[in-house]
Amino acid sequence: MDRIRITGGNELNGTLPISGAKNAALPLMIASLLTDDTLTLDNVPHLADVESLIRILGNHGVDYSVNGRRENQQKGYSRTIHFTARSIVDTTAPYELVSKMRASFWVIGPLLARMGVARVSLPGGCAIGTRPVDLFIDGLRALGAEIEIEQGYVNAKAKNGLIGNRYVFPKISVGATHVLMMAAALAKGETVLENSAREPEIVNLADCLNAMGAKISGAGTDTITIEGVTSLSGARHRVIPDRIETGTYAMAVAMTGGDVMLEGAQADLLEAVLDTLEQTGAEITRTNSGIRVRRNGAGINPVDITTQPFPGFPTDLQAQFMGLMTMAKGRSHITETIFENRFMHVQELARLGANISLSGQTAVVDGVSELRGAPVMATDLRASVSLVIAALAAQGQTEVNRVYHLDRGFERLEEKLSACGAVIERISS
Ligand SMILES: CC(=O)N[C@H]1[C@@H](OP(=O)(O)OP(=O)(O)OC[C@H]2O[C@@H](n3ccc(=O)[nH]c3=O)[C@H](O)[C@@H]2O)O[C@H](CO)[C@@H](O)[C@@H]1O
Ligand SMILES: C=C(OP(=O)(O)O)C(=O)O
Prior knowledge:
The chain contains 14 helices and 24 strands. By secondary structure, the protein is α/β, with parallel strands linked by helices. It has two domains: 203 residues, UDP-n-acetylglucosamine1-carboxyvinyl-transferase, Chain, CATH 3.65.10.10; 217 residues, UDP-n-acetylglucosamine1-carboxyvinyl-transferase, Chain (Alpha-beta prism), CATH 3.65.10.10. The strands form six sheets. Strands 22-23-1-24 form a four-stranded mixed beta sheet. A four-stranded mixed beta sheet has the order 2-15-17-16, covered by helices on one side. The protein starts with a strand and ends with a strand. The chain binds uridine-diphosphate-N-acetylglucosamine (UD1) and phosphoenolpyruvate. Phosphoenolpyruvate binds next to α12.
């Protein structure tokens, strides 16, 4: 299992390119199941989750090529990938594949809409909470699907196709909004989705579906209207820059000090985060080519945050922000409202000398003047990168174990950080 070794204490300076967003690329790839034509996606990040989804889609009959050829080049860089689901050869998504990655459950929407049937394993639980799928099931039932859960599988049928309807999400869900939008794109008549998620990845998917011939309006607001069409065509579409990767590296610079241009980053995707970083004392400059982050001299101000659906502070940056607050000049409160168990990084940050106590859904962080390197364990994707942020500022050496979590969502992390002056290396074993 690979490890990452970091010797802390260096400022970050230079230019750091931002990759395509994992959480936009995954639903866009799944949308390729909706058409027998080719969907070409530009700026697809090179990540373990993308590779896993390619395998899952392949099982349903989706063929793919990278820049016109099978993948064998440009390892590690965002790419253009062509996906073609000429025919769906299997409408079952088996446990062995779905249990590896939660987003793979989302194939249920397109499979049901295009084929009238889908059998998809319940996704596995994971370290950040229970993550049920009740909203997907309720929503698809509202579109006329018959659904049973049997032996760990969701069996869904809509023999005569899905039928548009009004559905009010009882709780905001990114995944369920993606799935219902894809399913309703091929339903008969109009669907109105209320209390929808407003994340930029939802807008990116709606834009792609519209380029494929769908009739979707309102994505990015809480009410999305979808006029069903009988078929969708191919299209070419670009994955948006990764706002979580952007926020992560912005926090790393705020932590170590220095001056870094996050090239290709888009400020409107993370305004709440940038505002918070400014309150901590970091200087943020929004430019046409990216976001410049600077912190020189002065220490880090403590700032309280509460995670919220977009446009609020994202849960996917909560761990990283806690990493930053471990060295703030005072006490901060970090409240997690989206997932019930997303504090696994607390005990690992403590190994580096952080002073954090938990009180229900709130972490109380008392900033310390110094962290010290230690062996730590990555427990989930964003938790693992919070350890990297802390390690970059810690005295001495830190080894982060189980970096396969990191590889799910951060493209060429060591290369990007070392180009900005970090002492960081991967130890393969
Ligand atoms: C691949 C991807 O894009 N993952 C993101 C997506 O996950 P994901 O789409 O899984 O997250 P959701 O927005 O669905 O989850 C929000 C909340 O709703 C709950 N819920 C969800 C569905 C359901 O049927 N029932 C239910 O109760 C969840 O347990 C959670 O408490 O949005 C999360 C919230 O921004 C992010 O942290 C993840 O990085
Ligand atoms: C939690 C995340 O991903 P997933 O929903 O795939 O687990 C994430 O991207 O932070």
